Amino acid sequence: MTDYRAVFVEELTRVAPDIDPSTVGDGDHIQDDLALDSMDVLNLVAALHARLGVDIPERDYPEIATPARAAAYLAARAG
């Protein structure tokens, strides 16, 4: 069984290597709290697609705004 939160945080820290994965909370917003810019978000979406095969349309970006929301979103759409 895939741990979608762990996958999300791994890809997040690849896109933004200055983020310490051990400090990322379930409710941390990727832009407001973790300071990703729009290009980082696009890179994260691309990385998640490459790793999981999940298409994330722009209208769904709010669904991956926190690790907890992203894990639920990815679990519902993967596989």
Task: Explain what you see.
Residues 1-78 form the Carrier domain. The chain has 79 residues and is an all-alpha fold. The protein has one domain (4-77): Non-ribosomal Peptide Synthetase Peptidyl Carrier Protein, Chain A (Orthogonal Bundle), CATH 1.10.1200.10. 48% of the residues lie in helices and 0% in strands. It is built from 3 helices and no strands. It starts with a helix and ends with a helix. 25% of the residues are buried.
Features:
single chain, 79 residues, mainly alpha, Non-ribosomal Peptide Synthetase Peptidyl Carrier Protein, Chain A, 48% helix, 0% strand, globular
Task: Produce the secondary structure layout.
Blueprint: H1 4-15, H2 38-52, H3 67-77
Helix pairs in contact: 1-2, 1-3
Q: What's the architecture, going by CATH? A: Orthogonal Bundle
Computed CA radius of gyration, to the nearest angstrom: 11 Å
- Indicate how many domains the architecture comprises: 1
CATH superfamily: ACP-like
Q: Give the biggest sheet.
A: none
Organism: Roseicyclus persicicus
Protein name: Acyl carrier protein
Pfam family, one: PP-binding
Domain Carrier: 1-78
